[in-house]
Amino acid sequence: VGCEGNLELAAGGFTFTCPGGSISVPFSSISLMEYRQDISRKIRRMKVRWRVRPSYIAPIFGGKKNRFFTVVFAQDGATRVLVLRVGPEDMRPYLAEIDLKSGKRVEVQGYEQY
């Protein structure tokens, strides 16, 4: 929580690194990616062991800008969820690259112009 860092894309996945640590997510392990103004109900209701509850990270109804990049992936036989707060101006260049490299679509909340 509150760990500001960098997201690095590679051919096989991405790595988020911050002073508190890092996490690598292979594209092959990803089942869902969303970029929204909040964390979707579908993800909030998942039966995962949350280290930080989604309601603490993001409001249920959040503003007029997309800012939460949420990734659902499998690791060590368990479902994991990674939530990154990323402004639209920073995320926009990554969306197409993530789609292309992962072979999966980032579900973007539709009202914003991209």
Q: Order of strands across the biggest sheet?
A: 6-5-4-7
Query: What helical percentage do the residues reach?
Result: 10-25%
- Major sheet: size, sense and barrel closure? 4 strands, mixed
Percent strand equals 35-45%
Shape designation: globular
SSE series? EEEEHHEEHE
Low-confidence sequence ranges: none
> How far is the first residue's CA from the last residue's CA?
28 Å
Radius of gyration: 13 Å
Averaged pLDDT, please?
85
Class computed from helices, strands and strand pairing: alpha+beta
Helix tally equals 3
* Strand segment count: 7
Describe this structure in words.
- The termini are far apart.
- The protein contains three helices and seven strands.
- It is globular.
- The model has no long low-confidence stretch (mean pLDDT 85).
- The strands form two sheets. A four-stranded mixed sheet has the order 6-5-4-7, with no helix packed on it.
- A hairpin with a 2-residue loop joins strand 5 and strand 6.
- The protein has 114 residues and is α+β, with helices and mostly antiparallel strands.
